[in-house]
TrEMBL record:
InterPro entries: Phytyl_CoA_dOase-like. Keywords: Dioxygenase, Oxidoreductase. GO terms for molecular function: 2-oxoglutarate-dependent dioxygenase activity; iron ion binding. It holds the Pfam family PhyH. The keyword Metal-binding does not apply. This is Phytanoyl-CoA dioxygenase family protein.
Amino acid sequence: MIAETVKIPSDVVDSLDRDGAICLRGLFDQSWLDLAAEGIRRNIETPTPMFQRFGQEGAGAFYSDLWARREISEFERFALESPSAAIAAQCLRTDEVRLLQDTWFVKTPGTQVRTPWHHDNVVLGPFCSIWVALDPIPKAATLEFVRGSHRLGRLFMPPAFFERGDEPLARIDEFYSKYHGSLNLEDEKVFDLVPNIEANRGDYEILSWDLEPGDCLVFHARTLHGSPGNTLTHDTRRMVTRWVDDTAVLAPHGGSVVERLVAEGFDVDLAVGQPIRGNLFPSLRPFG
């Protein structure tokens, strides 16, 4: 498999390092969008054990699945042959990148479920995500970022991570807590609670863009981000790949992710503090 290459101006990569997120226009042509859309359609019909559905029946829905490319060939092709690897290599300033994860998100019209403000910290080291819009997504429904938050030097966790009460947690909060490890007293010294950004939006410089199909957002994993529900009349579908370089390691609190993958039958052999390696995380050199 040969990954399609694209070139990103150096000043755009500089702005990613400065701001934590950028928008790249039209780098994915219709063939890639059609491939991802077909994969999502098939995945919803035949979900994997990692499939998630958030929201109330009859009131819109928020769907996602993780590492589904093992069963959905369209995702395998998209991840390994689309321009994603070339984008990641340039944005991480490396010749070789590893595919950490394939995932996707669909919010149907009427869903009120908000993706809470969070960042991705199960892996430590160079780590970026590429979100490709499959539909027109205006600012009112798109992903938002706190500019420069990747440079704060702190690891943030959602409220669910620190929850000790008996009240049931919202499923989406449980999801983001579950994939960032389990709480112990030592963790409380390491992690900060995600700020209440939504209630204090004026205190932050928030970045967002109107997206057309084929546009993509690239952001550093430690950039705080979140998105609203879908008040539009059409689905908002995003195909996502996440990438690391060969120096990135599994974070100390990442053991629960490995346990879940092993329990679901994934061929994975990762250890805390060790580099990301193995068949589930293929290495690509998009520029040869």
